[in-house]
């Protein structure tokens, strides 16, 4: 089944890629690898989620934020592949950062929402290695930021 078909079946549309807000580029291609800069939960009307997990953001809200980060990764990947997501051979790695209170230990459950989306969309090629790290702050006060390394043909 094609990536486009999976997206349609899931009722998802690829958003417009988020423009960088500092001195970096949204993705870099080196050979057949694409490194995608950290994506935050930016929706069509701006930030959809802000706050600290375990304080003013629940685990379920953080999971929704992680899923939106993953969708923004796919938007950057779509731009990097010239609109041809069928070129994706493998989601190699996701790096997940969770802005959370001290003592919070559910970072893997939060980032699982992004991992699950990659597998749902790319099938076996979406299985990846991963980090899920708790941090005390993220840019713009977002609860989650995720970057990616992707192999394309």
TrEMBL record:
<dbReference type="InterPro" id="IPR035959">
    <property type="entry name" value="RutC-like_sf"/>
</dbReference>
<dbReference type="Pfam" id="PF14588">
    <property type="entry name" value="YjgF_endoribonc"/>
</dbReference>
<feature type="domain" description="Endoribonuclease L-PSP/chorismate mutase-like">
    <location>
        <begin position="5"/>
        <end position="140"/>
    </location>
</feature>
<dbReference type="InterPro" id="IPR013813">
    <property type="entry name" value="Endoribo_LPSP/chorism_mut-like"/>
</dbReference>
<protein>
    <submittedName>
        <fullName>Enamine deaminase RidA (YjgF/YER057c/UK114 family)</fullName>
    </submittedName>
</protein>
